[in-house]
Amino acid sequence: SNNSGTVRARGVYAYSGGIAGYNTGTLSQCSNIGNIMAITTSTGGSAYSYGYSGGIAGYSRGTTSESYNTGVVEDSEAGASEAAYSGGIVSYQKGGTIINCYNVGYVPDKTYYGDTGGIAGYSTGSISLCYDIGRVPEGYPSGGGAIVGYTSQITPNCFFLDDNKVGVAEGKDSTISCSKEALLLAETYTGFDFNSVWEIGVYDTYPCATLKNIEHKSSIIGNDLFSGGTGTAYDPFLIENAEQLNNVRVIPAAYYELIEDIAFKDSDYAEGGTFYNDGEGWLPIMYFVGSFDG
Fold it and tell me: What pLDDT, on the 0 to 100 scale, is given for residue 138?
């Protein structure tokens, strides 16, 4: 199964997933390239509300295998009485298994209380044979991990791009930080089955390990905003004009490359100009956690 659309769930308990909001079975050979969001609503009292957003599943007690996410997975900003969990594959894993999965997408941490991770936000189950190259920036007090935000188990044979600071934000960390170059080599992925499950170097714009039994597709987010690229470390978005530079604020955690010099004109800032903004001119990009090659 594949999701390429926008999935939003809203409620006191908001379960949002590219394939399943709540999983108690087996999800295998699934992918998400769209935008996933859980929006928590207040209970009106002292009780917490909970948001779960995952690229494949929101809340899972089952198994997720041979699946990947290249989309954006996020929660609305949660207040002090709202708990929000975000994961590139699964948001909140209560027992169960995540195996042979990878995340390329952006998983921002907007939570005051909750957990965020490239593979799972929160997990008391098994996570193994997974990797992440997506951005999981540090956020509010909960923090974020490239593989998992919180785990009570070890995470064997899990790898992440070293642009992220930690593999596990809280819990037992056995993850391995890797350079951009190392993730192009099959020998880096210790324990991965490159005979029947994984392959590497198959796609020109995505040369890392991919799954044999499901086609790798890049996120559709940003396709119409730049002159090319998919926003990853291996295929950055290409920028050649001022409008595209302004679009960086839409996806603040992607990788970018400037391919043409940009010269602003006085008319851009004059009334009626593209960047007039009620006389304020160019608005600074206040939150940027990506990479820009100028």
Answer: 64
> What's the 3-state SS for the chain?
CEECCEEEEEECEEEEECCEEEECCEEECCEECCEEEEEECCCCCCCCEEEEEECCEEEECCEEEEEEECCEEEECCCCCCEEEEEECCEEEECCCEEEEEEECCCCCCCCCEEEEECCEEEECCEEEEEEECCCCCCCCCCCEECCEEEECCCCCCEEEECCCCCCEEEECCCCEEECCCHHHCHHHCCCCCCCCCEEECCCCCCCCEEECCCCCCCCCCCCCCCCCCCCECCECEEECCHHHHHHHHHCCCCEEEECCCCCCCHHHHCCCCCCCHHHCCCCCCCCCCCEEEC
For residue 80 the two structure tokens come to 């002090």
- Report how far residue 138's alpha carbon sits from residue 169's, in angstroms, rounded to the nearest whole number: 9
| Consecutive 10-residue averages of pLDDT for the chain (294 residues) | 89 91 97 90 70 95 98 72 86 97 88 85 96 79 82 95 92 94 98 98 96 94 90 95 93 93 88 86 85 92
Strands 2-3 and 31-32: parallel
Counting every residue written for the chain, the total comes to 294
Q: What is the pLDDT of residue 285?
A: 87
Residue 291 burial class via C-beta count within 10 angstroms: exposed 0-12, middle 13-18, buried 19 and up? middle
Contact 51, 82 (CB under 8 A): yes
Using an 8 Å Cβ cutoff, are 141 and 149 in contact? no
Q: What is the pLDDT of residue 160?
A: 97
The whole-number pLDDT of residue 79 equals 55
pLDDT of residue 77: 57
Q: What span, in angstroms and rounded, lies between the C-alpha atoms of 211 and 219?
A: 16
> What pTM does this model have?
0.91
